[in-house]
Structure formats: C-alpha cells, structure tokens
Amino acid sequence: MGIYRIRKITLQNDEKHKTSINLLNGISTNNKIIVIADANNNNNFSDDKVYYFNYDNSIKTACDLYNSAPIINIPNVTIYDDLKKEHSFSLQVKISPSIERNDGSLRSMRELTNIDNLDFDFYPINYYGESIIIDKVNYEVAVLPHPLAFEYYNLKAPGILNFNTIAFYEKKNKNLIDSQIFLYNLNAAIEYKKQFKVGNQFISVKDYSYKDNKITLYITKADELDSLNMIKELIKRNSLNKAMFENKDYILLEFSGSWCVPCKEVLPLVKDAFSKYKSKVAFITIDVERNKKGMDNFINESKLEWPIITEFLDCKSKEECLSNKLSVHSYPSFILINKYGKIIKQGVGEGTLLEIESIFKND
C-alpha cells in the first residue's frame, strides 16, 4: 500500500467561513510520489483521480519537476469576499513535491520516501502580463499569482499572498525563465519600494489590484553609470591584475553563489565561453554569499580560471557591493560592458548568456 497522510489546505478561515481542500499524499510501495485531491469535497478519496510523480534522473531542477507535474482540477471552490458575498469557481493548480532544500540543493528520492520530509508546493498554470517598451526594447511585465490567492482577498493580507511574484522579461523570447530580467516577491517589492534596473531605467512597483487586474509601476531614469571608473575601482580595491583587462573588447560580470542551483547548472557554459573568448573578454565572477563558509565553498568547488570577488547577500552599501550598485536581485545574472564603458546586455540565466555569446560571435 505504501505510506500516506491527509493534509488540509486552508483557503479561507475567518469567523464565519472556512474553506479548505483535503489532499492525500504519500509514497507508494514502488517509491512513486502520489497525491489525491478531494476535488468534490466529500471526505472520500476513492472517487478522485490519483496523480503520480516520477522523481528520476531526468529531474535536474525544481522547474523540471514543475513542468512534468499534472494540472489538478478542483471544482466548486467557494470563497467569500470582504462584503461576505459568495464566489464559486473551479480551481486549476499544479501541485508539485517540494524538492529544494533551503540552500537551493535538491533532496534525494531516499529523503522524500520519509513521509515527514514530503511537502508540496502550489503553482499557477498561467500568469498575467502586459507589454511595455523601455529604451526602444519590448519587455513584458508579468504577475504570477499564487494559485490559492484570490482576487477577493486583501493584497496586503498575511499568509500565502507572500508567494505572489512579479517578473520582467524580454518579449522576443517566450521562455519566461531564460529571458528573465528580474523575478521578485510582489508584496516585498511594494512594501520595501524595491528598484530594478531595466535598460537605462529603474522600475519600482507602487501597487497591484487582483480585482482590476492592474499593476502600477514607477519608472525613473537611472543615473548614468561610469562603468570604466567602476571597473578601475574594482581592480584597485580587490588587487586584481590590470594586465588581465588590457586590450579586451568586453568585460563580463557574472553574479553567482554556492547556494544557487541554476548558477551551478550554467557554470559549464560560462567556462566554455571563457575558453572560447578569453582573448577578447575579461571575465569577473561576483560571488554573493550568506556567510564566509559559502565563500570558501564557492572558491573551492567552482575552480574558476578568472577573478572571483566576494560579497555578502545582506550588504547594504552601493559603493562596496556591485550587486547593489547594479541592482542585481536574481541569480545567475550577467552584465556585459564594452570597452567604452557602456552596459550593452544585462539579464538572468542561460538565455542571457547565450545572447551574450552571440554578440561575441558576431563581433
């Protein structure tokens, strides 16, 4: 039979209204992860569909598992708004086992076969996006709402609403991950007035309304950054060899960390780019870590042939920390600077690195 347990997912819980979904989840005898949603809410799982998850060698990232996860339909969900008006609808959601540890590494199947270690994440199956043009480049701003956060809720209410996300990505690439400029917690972006650099502009989020499906952004022109002087200060402060930067057409800054799984996955491509273009490109990796141990681990494990500069994640100084100075919030981030000191490409992930390589090839 396997090992199973029932979990109650609360959607609404106030003085008069309680709405929840019951999930039966566990591990079958052949070590497959299963989940059953009590879709008709009759406290009986025998008449509901069984969903299986194959966590095998093809799963390299949490995103892989999400992409393979089925869409679960839960009809007749009832939610009450602030005026106590009833809203009934069908909910479509992806429920995927939580396989990422806090440090970004993945749990093994052996760990997940312990029912106490088995947890699930909830994901939307779509997002809301609008086009926006900045510096003649077509971008899309997207809001990825947590699937259990409904428009009838107060946006600033505590709880699962903290998982709503805002993303900026280039419109020319439909892959949200590969062409991502930044991805950030929506509520935190509003509360802390976070600024994100897109082209030569700074973007900040003023507010978002689920009911009106409307996002309000502030766009302000970024101060012109003297990149050449920034690099000179970087070389001097970190005692880097000036000869490594002489007669180079470009400087490529890579922002990474030992805790970042996507950074580890893209590292072989970065090393390959270095071997092909090191004659005309100076590479610098900025290792952003939580503590000194992480810095030591990164240096020992990455085995890079180019300079590594270390920073702490909680660094607040724009003068001392490049991640703050250049508004880097997602990892791995890449920033390409030409020999005249102009930032000509900035983005996140493998897609950005491939676009940068195409610049090198066509130059």
Question: What can you tell me about this protein's structure?
Answer:
The structure is a single chain. This protein is of the alpha+beta class and 363 residues long. It has 3 domains: 3-122, no CATH class; 128-221, no CATH class; 227-362, 3-Layer(aba) Sandwich (Glutaredoxin). Helix content is 20%, strand content 37%. The strands form 5 sheets. It has a 5-stranded mixed beta sheet with strand order 17-16-15-18-19, covered by helices on one side. Strand 13 and strand 14 form a beta hairpin. The chain is globular, with a radius of gyration of 23 Å. Residues 152-162 and 174-178 have low confidence and may be disordered.
Defining key terms:
five-stranded mixed sheet; four-stranded antiparallel sheet; 3 domains; 8 helices; alpha+beta; Glutaredoxin; 363 residues; single chain
Q: What is the strand tally?
A: 19
Question: Can you tell me the CATH architecture of the largest domain?
Answer: 3-Layer(aba) Sandwich
Shape: globular
Enumerate the spans where pLDDT stays under 50 for 5 or more consecutive residues: 152-162, 174-178
Helix content bin: 10-25%
Helix tally equals 8
The SSE string, one letter per element, is: EEEEHEEHEEEEEHEEEHEHEHEHEEH
| Annotated CATH topology of the largest domain | Glutaredoxin
Which sequence of strands runs across the widest sheet?
Answer: 17-16-15-18-19
Ends distance: 62 Å
Return Rg in Å.
Answer: 23 Å
CATH class call of the largest domain: Alpha Beta
Mean pLDDT, rounded to whole units?
A: 77
Overall number of domains: 3
How does the major sheet shape up? 5 strands, mixed
In what range is the share of β-strand residues? 35-45%
CATH superfamily of the largest domain: Glutaredoxin
Structural class by sheet pairing and helices:
alpha+beta
